[in-house]
Amino acid sequence: MGFRYAPLHAMTTEDGNGNGNGPRGATRVQSVERAARLLMLVARDSTDGTGTGLAKAAGLAVPTGHHLLSTLVAEGLLARDEFGRYILGPAVSVLADAYHETLAVPDYLSRPLQGLAQTTGETTYLVGWRGSRIELLRRVEGNLPVRVSMPTTGVYHDAHARAGGKAVLAELPDPVREEYLAQHPLRPVTTSTITDRRRFETELALVRSRGWAVDEEEFTPGVCCIAAAVPGEAIQVAYAMSLPAQRYAERREELVQALTAAARSVAEVLATYGSSA
Length: 277
Prior knowledge:
single chain; Beta-Lactamase; two-stranded antiparallel ribbon; elongated
């Protein structure tokens, strides 16, 4: 059985008061849109960093670009280095910290989570990287008679033994992953847990290449999990499911397809936001 998720920006619109979550059908303010585009160009370090280079890359007249850049500098969102190139300003750290600390799960992440639980009947959860740790961000209970129960939110302990943890770890930059694993040893949780570092790195390489992870009774005897991370560098989150081992053997391929489709749908949304910024 196949699963297909419509791009989320097709499902979220704004009314005339600016309510909503998606770019399609939204009321847009051109100056804000242009400023956001310049800010994202600086963040991605995709130009020479000069006012002229940024303006051209954003498709703006050079004088217009300079006015917007000056405004962003005045607000602390941008700054200039010793060579006069534009760099991110100190106010960006406030936004970044708030983003990582917020407990709210945005609509573009929660919709696929709810859709997975409703369509498959399995308990589904969202796992993500926040600050310097992996957390369980949200859970939606399945409706099948026999299902696996988990905490609603909180720190995601023993991530190396769980599919969601593997999926997130596989997508982290190497130095960040190294630091995390140095602080969280590969302890044996069950007799099936991978505790050898070389074998674990091989497992993560496999996860990256195929786009999904599993744990087969590595965290809880009799329980298996499947997870798929949202591809790309914009966000480190994964959708995951936990289910009894017998049902896992029967439904694995079907659920892998559902999870990867949901993860790709979020990547499409993020690409849409990025291209419109």
